[in-house]
Amino acid sequence: MMRLQADWMTHPGTVAVFDALCDHNAWFVGGCVRDGLLGKRVDDIDITTDATPETVLNCAEAAGLRAVPTGIDHGTVTVIAHDKPHEITTLRRDIETDGRHATVAFSTDIAEDAARRDFTINALYATRSGEVLDPNGEGVHDLQNRRVRFIGDAARRIEEDYLRILRFFRFHAHYADPAEGLDPDGLAACAAHVEGLHRIAKERVTAELLKLLSAPDPAPAVAAMEHSGVLSAILPGATSRLLTILTAVEGALPHDAIRRLATLGGEDTANHLRLSRAEITRLALYHDEMVSTKSPGELGYRFGLEPARDMLALRAALQERTVTAADDAEVERGAAAEFPVEAADLMPGLEGPALGQRLRELEKRWIDSGFDLKKEALLG
């Protein structure tokens, strides 16, 4: 029997939540079980129970815990205990689905609840003491073998919620063996249902894509998206080629989704995705600086260390080369440099546009010198 053992299971708030539900069956479920078994960090604790949402609310109130009906129509109540939120959802079975939303009925059967989930590795449950339950009989095996597969018929799972197409690629990038290809049945079903993605809100599509691009190496999954027609469905004109090169030259850089998104290209990315203003600004800047002639030092000086390193990696990928230690050292030097001349140093002799022009000229001389020229030399 497989057991789950993790510190978060014995957090005082989590213990209090299970104590509050003591008259009802309750289990850890989904991501916290999956990631706990893999030894990954767990921040979000999901619990399922045979108690109805109203009963969960009453149990929490009786135990002096704060409860919020965050999704009560779908059976979800968030209970906060010792400042830690726990999302508690009543066991469910699907009555009707339309590719975006599901009409559910509450259940007392854990097998019914497991059957409506997307992937085998997400249909894992654990008792409060850590006994792992695998109602479908495939989740533990797939998790151990790092395989991402739909539960039952892949086409049917996708037709229930077309966002599962993107989740299939995202979960492969984060959880599957990188040496193995994507599950062929799942991949074929995704390709056959690609038009369903047009029914999904841009916000949901964007969130899934950015999570995928945050994986350690998203390139194989994105390449599979391109070959199956999924990538062009959400981002017309996009290609995975440059992303594959970028992930090979990123080195120790953080797994940044916007940097990686910049490699995909495509037609009007900001219009097809729902990005924040800050993300749109970063994306446009990266596109511009990938092809600029600024030196690594100037990139560091003008944009700061981390953005400059992103730009340098993107430029290297575009040129199909590596980022050299000398380039990185120059970026660091530029990021730490401070232009020694101020407007006051040129006044009262200059003012207005002439003052601005002279400052720019001196700044260029200073940058071209490798940030070596001192104020006296620049003003002399």
Structure, described:
The protein is an alpha+beta fold and 380 residues long. It is built from 20 helices and 9 strands. It has helices at residues 12-20, 31-37, 53-62, 110-115, 139-144, 154-160, 164-175, 184-192, 202-213, 219-228, 230-234, 241-249, 257-261, 269-272, 277-290, 296-303, 305-318, 325-336, 352-368, 375-379, and strands spanning 26-29, 45-49, 66-71, 76-81, 84-90, 92-97, 102-106, 125-126, 132-133. The chain has a 7-stranded mixed beta sheet. The chain has a two-stranded antiparallel ribbon with strand order 6-7. Strand 3 and strand 4 (76-81) form a beta hairpin. The termini are far apart. The mean pLDDT is 94.
CATH topology category name of the largest domain: Beta Polymerase, domain 2
Helix/strand structural class: alpha+beta
Radius of gyration: 26 Å
Distance between the termini: 80 Å
Number of helices: 20
Let me know the average pLDDT.
Answer: 94
Biggest beta sheet attributes: 7 strands, mixed
Order of helices and strands: HEHEHEEEEEHEEHHHHHHHHHHHHHHHH
* CATH C-level of the largest domain: Alpha Beta
Percent of sequence in beta strands? 5-15%
Low-pLDDT runs of 5+ residues are none
Helix content: 40-55%
Q: What is the general shape?
A: elongated
Number of domains: 3
Total E-strand runs: 9
Q: What is the CATH architecture term of the largest domain? A: 2-Layer Sandwich
Q: Strands across the major sheet, in which order?
A: 3-4-5-2-1-8-9
CATH superfamily of the largest domain: Beta Polymerase, domain 2
